[in-house]
Amino acid sequence: MRATALALLFACSLSLSANAQQTRTQQASEAEQAKAASEKPTPETAKAEAKQEPENLGPWKGLQYRLVGPFRGGRVVAASGVVGQDDVYYFGGVAGGVWKTTDGGLNWKPIFDKMKDASPSIGALAVSESDPNVIYVGTGEACIRGNIVGGNGVYKSIDAGTTWKFVGLADTHAIGHLIVNPKNPDIAFVAALGHPFGENAERGIFRTRDGGKTWEKVLYKDAKTGGIDITFDPSNANILYAALWQAKRTPWSMDSGGPGSGLYKSIDGGTTWKEIKGHGLPEATIGRIGVTVSGGNPNRVYAVVEAEKG
């Protein structure tokens, strides 16, 4: 009798346990369904996500930026990697000289400080593709704020930044861009904006064909207009595009744009230039211009134009 009662009690316990387990499972399932329903996007949310989908699914979806230093180096408008050396980079601070890393940004070293007579403001920097030991830097930034540090010309290194030598254009004051012929380190071009606060003649596009020993002014408009950008056609280094910018700065104002600003093209290695007008470019007063050429299609040229209209 006692054994029978114990058996019945045990059976009831099993039944209650099974029912409780079933109830918990059912509750969990209902909770998951409720959560899924609450997370289901509304039509408005779905539309918003659909608009973002191309970007989210693009090649940059997983890209995340991180600080690689140095923490203190001033603003930067000039930086360059080195072809064939994935861990070597240079940058120029607008008041901090030139810095170099050989370990992908883990450590940086100032390499321009010993140039006592050089301006610490770096506006442009270029490393030769054919000889990575050759580096040109243009002093004086062309992002002409009211409190910029002026430059005093172009400097060159032939030992990957260990030593530097002044190579001219001392009165250019501000340099917007600098490029080196991909096959010849002795050929380089400087887009010199000139004195931001006044008129001067040493501005425009300059070319050297002897490594900086001599410079030619190959494109010049007037004493109010300087060079702000220049680029090679990646498929043909004899084809170049350059931008001139008429601009003047005072400590309290900025005057950007005028008849001097324009986009130019050379097909003979920079000896002669022709202004590009029309064809979709703004026809009214224009200011600063940035230009580049597609690496995959040299017929595709991009220009970012500050324009009064359009």
CATH topology value of the largest domain? Methylamine Dehydrogenase, Chain H
Q: In angstroms, what is the radius of gyration?
A: 31 Å
Count of helical stretches: 2
Q: Helix and strand string, N-terminal first?
A: HHEEEEEEEEEEEEEEEEEEE
Q: Helical amount among residues, as a percent range?
A: 10-25%
Distance between the termini: 100 Å
Could you report the average pLDDT, rounded to the nearest whole number? 86
Shape: globular
How would you describe the overall organization of this protein?
It contains 2 helices and 19 strands. It folds into 2 domains: 2-56; 76-307, Methylamine Dehydrogenase, Chain H (7 Propeller). The protein is globular and about 80 Å long. Mean pLDDT is 86; it is low at 1-21. Strands 13, 14, 15, 16 and 17 form a 5-stranded antiparallel beta sheet that branches. A 4-stranded antiparallel beta sheet has the order 1-2-3-4, with no helix packed on it. Strands 5-6-7-8 form a 4-stranded antiparallel beta sheet, with no helix packed on it. The chain is α+β, with helices and mostly antiparallel strands.
